[in-house]
Amino acid sequence: MASLTLDKVTKSFGAVEVIPGVDLDIKDGEFVVFVGPSGCGKSTLLRLIAGLEDVSDGDIRIEGDSVVSIPAADRGVAMVFQSYALYPHMTVRENLSFGLENIRMAKPEITRRVTEAATLLQIEQLLERRPKQLSGGQRQRVAIGRAITRDPKIFLFDEPLSNLDAELRVMMRVEITKLHERLGNTMIYVTHDQIEAMTMADKIVVLRKGVIEQVGAPLDLYNHPRNLFVAGFIGSPRMNFVEGRIEALGEHTITFAADGLPPLVLDGAVEGAATGAPVTLGVRPEDFLVSHAAEKGWPATVSIAEQYGASSYLHCTLPGDRPVLIHEPGQSKAGRGDVIHVAPPAGRWHLFDAEGLALGNPRLS
Amino acid sequence: MSAGTQFAAAAGAVVALPARLVEPVMYGLQRLLGIRRMPWVFLLPNLVAVILFALLPVFINVFYSVSGSDRLFPWDRPLVGGANYATLFDCDNFLDPSTCSRDLFWRALGNSLVFVPVQVTAMILIALLTAICLNRDIRARGFFRGIFFFPVMLSPVVVALTWQWILQRNGALNGLISSAGLTPVNWLVFPNTAFFWSVFVTVWAHMGFYTIILLAGLQAIPRDVYEAARMDSATPWRVFTRITLPLLKPVLLVVFILAVIRSVQTFDELYVLTGGGPGSATMLMVQYIFEVGFASQPRNFGLAAAASLLLGVALLIFTGIQMRISRSGRDD
To answer: In the CATH scheme, what architecture does the domain A4-233 have?
Structure first.
């Protein structure tokens, strides 16, 4: 168990700067998820922490001690690779014990640790098999087991579930979360899947182009995204955006206008809003209130109505050919071609300025 | 239509022309033979070549080995049964070639029995070492890969003549040695040094081929397995013995078989470089066969055929053992 500090960490490959500078504090026992689109530098950041890549500049501290000049094996971290990276010619037992034999641990202790990890992950009956005789999920467990036997201070997971099918992924997600609760170690988990991030993390780190866009608890990021990127990345399906301007500011209302759309009066106030300023309005699909009759809000033409049974997703078009996705609880009555009226309720909207930064949180009086 | 597409269309038409000519013939054959016999039509050209140039010579060789005289055409040759084999095995003491009626055969066999293990071991060790070096992120890696492969593309005679020029009494190596103030050595005149240089030159000439195969094998080992081993505190030596070697085993086995067969067949480089000498110190089996069958008068085709058949059987047995080992390796 350990805390981790990244202090102005940068990484360049030749002339290409992959990570221009990251500062981050991870507390002891936290489950932190690095999330971002492919190529955002999240795996590189993980490999820097692991010691598989050298930092170009800056410092990485585990429990306050700098580890940048310490080899990967001696940092007290263990990594679960995306491809599992099991040793194909060794049995599961040998895969689990290889690292311990390398540090000349006593045989009985190795046996104890391997048995313990195997029991924890329910792979005891697979110990004499080879990786190619295992299913994807079993290989995943062995890879995690290999990390557990080393009893690391910090676990590193590099997109560990991306090779599993959807059902197994949900199962392993729960198992890894449980594992974290049981072991209590600091865990850093890299994924491009924001659902994994939302469901597993104590703390999410959203990365884009090697830069941290926002750090926070899952619902913090969901409810209070700091910028357009985080707003669009966190949440599935993604937030709807409409570009426009602030037409009028009331005491507790803001009137938002966009070409071709009737002005929309938003309940709530934000700091930094100015009349006439170009802004982007963001509304999550589930935040739209749908009225099928009353002429309130924006008229949206339904192009596809997806009925999930418990809820419905309406793919609609606003005037000006703006696509918008609306989530309606229960089974929607709307069908293709229908015109519905939509508007966000008080406080359930986000405004972003021309630079894409959020204009504070809507305050309700 | 642009010039480019016009050219492409014209080139396409030219390429398609043979196909258009052959097509009606093939359809005719298919109507005649039925579709189930068609594979034989496509196999036939290759089969003819294999039968004519590989299988038939084997049978002819068997016939020559049981027939005598120096006549070339089979119908002129009288059958002698096992006489040729008896001549080869006519020895008072098998450990002392000079007691044999064909002492050169036993000397060549003895030389081969030393040369093959030594040369193959040296070949594989050096090729493996080179492949490992070339697999690293070193500067000018492509250049070095080319350099090491280059000798493979040379004609064996060119290889031998080059090294003869280096090793002869007034050669480049002795030039270097004497300019350093040391005594020159007549490398190809003493049995031991001649044998050493025989191994060296053949390794030099062929190692590039095995290096490329081993390099491909090394590159097929996933990078992240090595990274996992790094996280697992494995020392470089343990990574080599516990990760690289086991994962390279199938490729090593192929290289081993190829290298042994090639080593047993060694002839042209040494024939030009040492001529089998000094005396018979570097004469290997294939050279003996050549000398007996073609170089010396009268030409003893029967004896050469018998010797080469024995060599073939020995190689067959060896390959069988190798295949069994590789199969058991796959099972575990």
So the answer is: 3-Layer(aba) Sandwich (3.40)
